[in-house]
């Protein structure tokens, strides 16, 4: 376990199934904080890859509302990796957890998303996204725990 991370031979095989999701969202400029609680289901896509369907409740400054998002995790360029795309097919980021840790970037207009992905063990992994730019100054930390 280099650096305390748990290497994953094949990210798509590892992620398949249902995960409990807990996310904190901190607005570093304004000081606001919110949280998301829900589940993510990684289910097989026709032709290979996984459909990522997240749903739950997002609470921001005491106001809760339903929230959901869909991503596509497709086979990556190298064995065991993934090419993560938005639901409409636009590229999001690559994902390689063969060493148990990965960093990725995604430009969004003038803002830049920088993500770090770490795997603690077979049933726990985390993403930390730092979003910076003229429109956003956020820190999003998401913990995933395998269900069942």
Please, could you describe this protein's structure?
With 148 residues, the protein is mainly beta. Helices cover 3% and strands 64% of the residues. The chain is built from 1 helix and 10 strands. The chain has one helix at 11-15, and strands at residues 17-27, 33-44, 50-60, 63-75, 82-86, 91-95, 101-108, 111-121, 124-132, 137-146. Strands 6-5-4-3-2-1-10-9-8-7 form a 10-stranded antiparallel beta sheet. A hairpin with a 4-residue loop joins strand 5 (82-86) and strand 6. The longest helix is centred in the N-terminal third of the chain and has 5 residues, at 11-15. It is globular and about 40 Å long. The mean pLDDT is 94.
Topology:
Elements: H1 11-15, E1 17-27, E2 33-44, E3 50-60, E4 63-75, E5 82-86, E6 91-95, E7 101-108, E8 111-121, E9 124-132, E10 137-146
Antiparallel strand pairs: 1-2, 1-10, 2-3, 3-4, 4-5, 5-6, 7-8, 8-9, 9-10
């Amino acid at each position: 376990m280099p650096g305390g991370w748990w290497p994953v031979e094949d990210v798509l095989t590892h992620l398949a199934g249902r995960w409990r999701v807990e996310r904190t969202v901190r607005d570093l400029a304004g000081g606001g904080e919110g949280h998301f609680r829900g589940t993510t289901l990684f289910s097989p896509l026709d032709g290979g890859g996984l459909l990522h369907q997240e749903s739950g409740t997002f609470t921001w400054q005491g106001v809760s509302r339903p929230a959901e998002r869909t991503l596509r995790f497709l086979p990556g360029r190298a064995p065991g990796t993934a090419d993560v795309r938005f639901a409409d097919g636009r590229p999001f980021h690559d994902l390689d957890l063969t060493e148990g840790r990965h960093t990725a970037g995604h430009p969004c207009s003038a803002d830049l998303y920088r993500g770090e992905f770490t795997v603690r063990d077979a049933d726990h992994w985390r993403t930390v996204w730092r979003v910076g730019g003229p429109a956003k100054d956020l820190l999003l930390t998401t913990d995933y725990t395998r269900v069942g």
